[in-house]
Amino acid sequence: QICLSLVKLLFYLAHSPLGSIVLLDFQPRQFVMVDGNLKVTDMDDASTEELSCKEDIDCTLDFPTKSFPLKCSAVGKCEGINEKKNLFNAYRYFFTYLLPHSAPPALRPLLSDILNATGDLRYGINETMRAFEKVLHLYKSGLYLQKRPLLLKDYISLKGFRTVEGEDYKCWPSYSHLGCLLSIHSAEEAAAICNSQSQCQSFIITQQRTWTGRPLASFQSSWTDLIPDTNAVVYIKRSASSGERL
């Protein structure tokens, strides 16, 4: 969410009515999240000036660990230097820390491609925006889910009940520090996640939604403490309930 919001902001800056705008003091502390959107707190160090040049050698974009040769345009300006400077700063301050983590395994190669392409400045902001929108579409639609055996049949569902909330086993990347709370596309995906975790014996799909509209599911190591909840459904592994009276 943070990276996508940042890309949308940089897309606007690259195509603003004033021309391509560069953030000269590009630091994480210069941004805040407001209603799920990343915003710049200080525009004092923003500029629309692009570096003047006479030949390509005048257009090297230097960073502490990398340098990029750019082209000198016919009008004597370094082509796209403001856009590329913003994008590489987004890569080194945000993408490298946030993109490799917390995505479903099937989407990680796509995010790795974005990371590598922006780190080498092979992508401009337009290509980066399209790549992020593709990942978002796959994530929201569930199209990233690979065909696999249906696992939900291995669970008993109890409508009108949920498990007692409390501290349980933890997983990554959980939305709660007290247990294992993950976003899912469907109950079938939740069953696959539960099957992949040795501690998991049951899960409940909550009424909570993430910023993409996906529900959150709470995965738990037991199912015995059930309480009535008309809006809930708890799913229990048949193997866990065998020999027990429901």
Automatic annotation (TrEMBL):
Keyword terms, alphabetized: Kinase, Signal, Transferase
Annotated signal peptide: 1-19
Example of a GO MF term: non-membrane spanning protein tyrosine kinase activity
GO CC, alphabetical: extracellular region
InterPro entries: PKDCC (IPR042983)
Biological processes, Gene Ontology terms: skeletal system development
Protein origin, superkingdom: Eukaryota
UniProt cross-references to PANTHER family, sorted A to Z: PROTEIN KINASE DOMAIN-CONTAINING PROTEIN (PTHR46448:SF2)
Protein name as catalogued: Protein kinase domain-containing protein, cytoplasmic
